C-alpha cells in the first residue's frame, strides 16, 4: 500500500488544559501579531540604496566631486557671492548694486544658498534663473540628503516615521529640522539644480578653487573628504581639519603659507566661516560676512582687477 494512502492508527490521549494557561497563550499570540504588523516592510537595504543615489555616491566613497568651469564662462567677469542663507531681498539688491549683466558677467555662489533665512527656495530659484555656478554648502547638503532619503522611501512605499523607528538616519541628518521641511517642499527642478552644485569648482584659467568651507594644503584635492571641504574652519596640531574654532588655527593660514612656496599657487574662494567674517588674504577670500545674522551680503568681482561689494542684511537668526 502506498505510504500516502496507508491508514495510521490513532492513539487517543487525554490532555488537561488549565483555563489560565489558555488565556495567557491567546493573549501572547495577539501581542506578537500586533507587534509584527507594526514593523514596516523594508525591501532591500535602505542605507545602501540611499548612498547609491546618484547625488551621494561620491560622498559615500569619500571621493570629491570636482567640476571645471568652462573656458567660455571663465572668460567672463566672474562674480563670487558669499553665503546667502535664504536672504532673497538682499541677494536681489546685491545683484542690482554690482550692475550684473548676463552677457558679460557670471555669478558663482560659495554655498549655503538655503536655511536660516526666510526665502530659501526662492533664492535657489533665482540662482538657477541666472544660470549661475555654485558649490555645495553644508546646509545645502542636509536639504539634498533629506530629499534623497524621502524620494527613496517614497519609491519603496515606506513612511519616514516608520523608517526612523527601526533605523538610524545618515549621520548628517536630524529629525525636526528646517532642512527636512525644505526637503519636503523643494520641487524636482530646484532639487536637481541644488544637488548639481559640486563640492569643488575648479577655474583653471584663474588658478582658483571655489569651495564652501576650506581645503587642506598638503592633501591632493581629489583625496580630501567632502564633509571636511563643506565644514572645516580650522586645522588642529595633528593636521586634521575641524569645524570647531577653539581647536587649532584657521585652515586659510596654512593654505596661504603653502602657496607662497608653491610653483603653481592656487587661490581658494569660500564662505562658511561667519564667525571670522569677510577674510581676505593673498591666496584665500572668505566671503561669509554674516548676512543672515544681520551683517552684510558680499560679492567679489574678479576680472582685470578685484573689488569687494556688499549690501546690509536683515537679522533672521541669532
UniProtKB/TrEMBL annotation:
Record's signal peptide: none
Swiss-Prot/TrEMBL keywords: Membrane, Transmembrane, Transmembrane helix
**Annotated transmembrane regions:** 20-42
Q: Does the keyword Heme apply?
A: no
State one Pfam family annotation: Metallophos
Q: Name one GO biological process term.
A: polyphosphate catabolic process
InterPro entries from the UniProt entry: Ap4A_hydrolase, Calcineurin-like_PHP, Metallo-depent_PP-like, Ser/Thr-sp_prot-phosphatase
- Gene Ontology cellular-component terms listed: cytoplasm
Name this polypeptide is given = Metallo-dependent phosphatase-like protein
